[in-house]
Amino acid sequence: MGSTTTLEADATIADKVSEGATTTNPEVVKWVTEIAELTQPDQVLWCDGSQTEWDRITAEMVEEGSLIPLDKNRRPGSFLARSHPGDVARVEDRTFICSENEADAGPTNNWRAPDDMRAELEPLFAGSMRGRTMYVVPFSMGPVGGAITQLGIEITDSPYAVLNMRIMTRMGQAALDGIVPGSEWVRTVHSVGAPLEPGQEDVAWPCNDLKYITHFPETLEVWSYGSGYGGNALLSKKCFALRIASVMGRNEGWLAEHMLLLKLTDTANHKTYHLSAAFPSACGKTNLAMLQPTIPGWKVETIGDDIAWLRPGPDGRLYAINPEAGFFGVAPGTGESTNPVAMETLWGNTIYTNVALTDEGDVWWEGKTDEVPEHLIDWQGNDWTPDSGRPAAHPNSRFTVPIQQTPTLADDWYGQDGVPLDAILFGGRRATNVPLVAQSLSWQHGVFVGATISSEKTAAQEGTVGELRRDPFAMLPFCGYNMADYWGHWLDMGERLGEHAPKIFQVNWFRKGADGRYLWPGFGENSRVIDWIIRRVSGQVEGRETAVGVLPAEGELNLDGIEEVETELDELFAIDPASWLAECELTEEFFGRFGERVPTALRAELAELRGRLDA
Ligand code: GTP
Ligand code: SPV
Ligand code: MN
Question: Where is the Phosphoenolpyruvate carboxykinase GTP-utilising N-terminal domain (predicted)?
Fold first, then answer.
């Protein structure tokens, strides 16, 4: 069990640590002491990630009314949390990259000078943990000691964040032991920004109207204030593993990506392949990571669903790990028919956020079952019936579940050195224009495709759902440095990998017909597209070259059993030169935002695409 330290008088925190997670690293002790002096919590708890600690924190939260225990027979070890109605998604307009130079943050990020931001944050964090416990959460991203692994500590006053971090990361003593004097590790601080006066009663989901999600890439720090929501509060995730890690990767020659990771086995000859895919938030990563093929001949195993770190290995190939240890997945739309693997994974030990509660003490959300319950308590705690005229679960409601509960988990998730990638997919939600699948003509063309991806906005971030926006590499909200430099880094990676470079594909599960229906059945049927991709990678099919890339040639896409889709194929693969040329205009405008920093290779790709479309 973690040890509690009361911050009083003479003794230092180090003196008072006697059990649980402990460290003799003076750098860590000094930093924790400084943060405690700034934020003035009632007590400091060094977390060890144990079951005992979990049991105690969940019991306290249930007692205080900030967690609802679910029925033990239906969802053992599982809880429901309801957020403040204004704290349900990432806040991109309150997210800042505080690099020394504004140009290093680039035009797609909000920027503040580090000193200015520190000055702005200081009065907010001063005393922000008063009346609360300050938790010190050491964690490892990737297996401790792994070739691509990184370590960090999150200080937080949110027990909800602590529980989620225990699921999402390898948390505890082993991680803390890896943080030795002089080693590189990431310092992250989180406060919900809701200090309690003596005697003041707490609310179920403390947060502050004022929010700051700030990143200091040069000093490897994250400071997050005012929100309890996943991506704003679980600092290992988007803040560290993408925004800070992307900068570390640029400096050290690797890549931090918003990607799922999966393993494919061709069951006839036992050949294995590995694939990663970058889709924007709520655009199908979790679903593809847990794919159940509807065609014979393939076994799919899951390695990761949201973040992948990619690094060239000693043999010159590109190796990938999933640095996380759990899923923070979108609940709505997850059901037996769409994602049975997720449903099985969610048998227990899960924290649900903003889903509905059934009268039996189980959870429900839109799409979980075809049959809609007659009565529920909705995500805001109100009575709900099917004719209430509003969703029972928030569209961005989520589950947090340990990855080790996934029935399809690949052994590779445990591996120290990652898996070699054969193919990389880029995708988005596009009702028009973008074909079901297209292979890029080269690595350079693939980087152009990734750089120019656009997608309809989802509920994963504050803003207007459905609005089309550029989301390069699905990293628009997550790239911690100048996006144009990031494209350059990808081009450099291609040079370095040479003939070992994975093949790059663009996919779109979301194309719609004139009647507004999806043309492609999606979900398990996406295995047909993956099948074609792997047959391209292994040189078994030719495809046909078009202006936008190589598409499946007549008969190459396996449609056995879904012959009715045959009639949609023309529309699914239609390439309208006029609309593509119009997109090229927008791409030129988009590149214009980055000025001279856009790699010339990408401008050349744009010119070549226009040439092919004109031909
Ligand atoms: P983040 O966790 O936000 O990064 O998202 P994600 O990319 O992991 O998204 P996820 O897999 O959870 O999918 C989000 C939504 O897309 C869900 O509502 C799914 O039902 C829907 N979805 C996923 N795959 C498909 C598909 O192949 N076709 C269609 N039509 N919808 C899909
Ligand atoms: C996303 O929005 O891409 C997520 C959820 O994966 S969060 O961790 O909240 O960013
Ligand atoms: Mn994500």
Answer: 30-250
